[in-house]
Amino acid sequence: MDPILELNGLSKVYRGGLKALDNVDLSVRKGEIFALLGPNGAGKTTLIGAVCGLVRPSSGTIHAFGHDLATDWRKARSRIGLVPQELSTDMFEPVEHAVSYSRGLFGLAPDRQRIEEILRSLSLWEKRGERIMALSGGMKRRVLIAKALAHEPDLLFLDEPTAGVDVELRKGMWAIIDKMRARGVTIILTTHYIEEAEMMADRVGVINRGKLLMVDEKDAMMARLGRTEAHITLAQPLATLPPDIGRFPVELEVGGTVLRYRGGDGTGKGKAEVAELTKALIGAGIDYVGIDTRESSLEDIFVSLLGDGEVPQ
After folding, report:
1. CA dihedral 65, 69, 72, 74 (to 10 degrees)
2. Which of 10, 71, 137, 185 has the most CB atoms at less than 10 Å from its CB?
């Protein structure tokens, strides 16, 4: 399947030499949810701005729906929606009017039934006559989503869509995103809440200092880079590890009462090895009183990638 969005060698250098994007290559497939993860200043918003026509790239190409955005941006732009990170909208406008106006900006005829459908899906219909300034922060963010959906885009950028909203509203946003995916909308999501990416994304990209460090299927990334960690509390402290225990990827923590295991590859190998380790402890006459095992989360992998600054092989 041809990509719905393709970036090749995309770079952006600002005055003073700040390189916000550094030779980024990325393909996004139709109908997927792609999560772009990175710390503040990593280049996420700059990348989105380049695709949406808000930032002029220094070099490289952007193709969306087969159109080169440098020469044929009008046709492509009409199929792209953006929910920005900042709450930038006319606060004095009533909700329904603001959303309808956004539809008209793309040359589409008025369609009150479609606007009603969007507002109802976002639990905004009862607020349609209220000025945006009177809404809560979470509702204002929903208005931004409604404005982005008003012209029925095929590709939607969500830049930190749940920033600053409470847990309940965040869960509501996740449900909205899931409905959009079900309608066939391709979604590119940036977020600080990595559990969002772990829950919803099909693929994940990690960006830092303008460089795209890694792009992979979420499940494949977790299988390839995930690890098992186990803390085994010993009944009696050890000064050194017997040879039969030292062959495992373990180390004694300070005091010698906790044995820490870190190994595996995210495919279940670690759990099997922890079971072998406990048998080896019993065989060596070492008693233990507790064991705590956990698997790496996507957040663990993300932190590890940023710490290394390199793409793992």
Report:
1. 80
2. 10
